[in-house]
């Protein structure tokens, strides 16, 4: 028996539910637990490495401050995966599944929106850096960015906390969904949070698109200017542009599908009577599949650090005792032999 709720532990028997609508099919109990286990192992290794590298780089640019926030969010997100694996594969006690609904899933979403917000800020910062390459920063601005980071964590925590507190009902059977544990106010808050988070996501997507369009325009005109001036081909600038698109590609692949599927799924949770059980199951599976893509972001972020942040690569190679030019064919961001600078002339050497 589970101490917290008094229900029998797994294997869960839910013969009382309509079996054709049961969530417990092979997708939820086998496929996703295997995929999340892989994400956990790879994500923990790569993000562990990223933490090790980042915390030996001083926070001397806005970009590095933002990346450090993302790496912390990714580590926390990765730590929630084992709970999801145990819960979805029905290997967890009822108490642990309640913990997943109340705490670890909420933490998962919190860290996801932290990453999304910091990606928006990174795009703005990169845009500013490209359009005004010689405008530096100072201690006061760096302190503001640290305050802003704290304010983002604080506000998202305040938004998410009621999702923990108002998931306070005890399950009435061993088979339950997170929405079954919510009080009426909890269900309303869950809906509100999802609206706010949709706004955060689409707002940041527009910001990222606008900023990267401006960056690409600037890179292209500086490329044509240089080409006209020297009469030479400058292949590196093209690879900078394609690296820049990595952020956009990651944003689209990881987050857009989830945010489309989240809308009908949240409606099926909060206005259940409008949906029959097959449709609810369909929206649940769609949400779970696209949520895995969002989780994949925690694994792809370290690749972004590697490709777009030269200080990250340099420090990584130093720590692994590899020569500085390692993988320059892959990153296309070596030092320009003519000018001695990085392709964007960015002294913080992160793009
Ligand atoms: N955007 C969000 N921010 C914070 N918490 C959230 C967010 N979306 C959902 N949650 C919370 O995470 C938990 C799991 O939600 P959800 O994934 O919708 O349920 P289920 O696992 O039953 O499909 C719930 O407590 C919910 O309120």
Automatic annotation (TrEMBL):
One of its GO terms (molecular function) is G protein-coupled purinergic nucleotide receptor activity. GO terms for cellular component: plasma membrane. The chain crosses the membrane at residues 34-55, 67-86, 106-126, 147-166, 199-220, 240-260, 291-309. Residues 46-305 form the G-protein coupled receptors family 1 profile domain. Signal peptide: none annotated. It comes from the Eukaryota. It is found in: Cell membrane. This is G-protein coupled receptors family 1 profile domain-containing protein. The lineage of its organism: Eukaryota, Metazoa, Chordata, Craniata, Vertebrata.
């Amino acid at each position: 028996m589970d101490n917290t709720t008094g229900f029998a532990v797994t294997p869960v028997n839910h013969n009382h539910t309509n079996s054709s609508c049961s969530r417990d099919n092979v997708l939820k109990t086998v496929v996703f637990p295997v995929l999340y286990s892989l994400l956990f192992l790879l994500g923990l290794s790569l993000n562990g490495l990223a933490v090790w590298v980042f915390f030996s780089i001083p926070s001397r640019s806005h970009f590095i401050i933002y990346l450090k926030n993302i790496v912390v969010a990714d580590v926390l997100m990765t730590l929630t995966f084992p709970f999801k694996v145990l819960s979805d594969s029905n290997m967890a006690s009822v108490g642990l599944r309640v913990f997943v609904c109340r705490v670890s899933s909420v933490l998962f979403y919190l860290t996801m929106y932290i990453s999304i917000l910091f990606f928006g800020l990174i795009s703005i910062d990169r845009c500013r850096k490209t359009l005004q390459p010689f405008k530096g920063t100072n201690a006061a601005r760096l302190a503001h960015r640290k305050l802003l980071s704290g304010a983002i964590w604080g506000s998202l925590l305040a938004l998410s906390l009621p999702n923990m507190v108002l998931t306070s009902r005890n399950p009435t059977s061993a088979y339950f969904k997170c929405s079954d544990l919510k009080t009426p106010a909890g269900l309303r808050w869950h809906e509100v949070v999802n609206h706010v988070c949709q706004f955060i996501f689409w707002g940041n997507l527009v910001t990222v698109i606008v900023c990267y369009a401006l960056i690409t325009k600037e890179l292209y005109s500086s490329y044509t200017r240089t080409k006209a001036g020297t009469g030479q081909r400058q292949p590196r600038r093209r690879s900078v542009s394609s690296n820049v698109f990595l952020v956009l590609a990651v944003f689209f692949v990881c987050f857009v599908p989830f945010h489309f599927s989240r809308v009908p799924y949240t409606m099926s949770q909060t206005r259940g009577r409008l949906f029959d059980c097959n449709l609810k199951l369909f929206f649940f599976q769609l949400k779970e599949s696209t949520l895995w893509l969002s989780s994949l972001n925690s694994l792809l972020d370290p690749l972004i650090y590697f490709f777009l942040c030269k200080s990250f690569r340099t420090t990584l190679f130093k720590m692994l005792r590899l020569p500085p030019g390692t993988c320059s064919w892959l990153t296309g961001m070596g030092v320009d032999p003519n000018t001695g600078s990085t392709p964007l002339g960015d002294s913080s050497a992160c793009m």
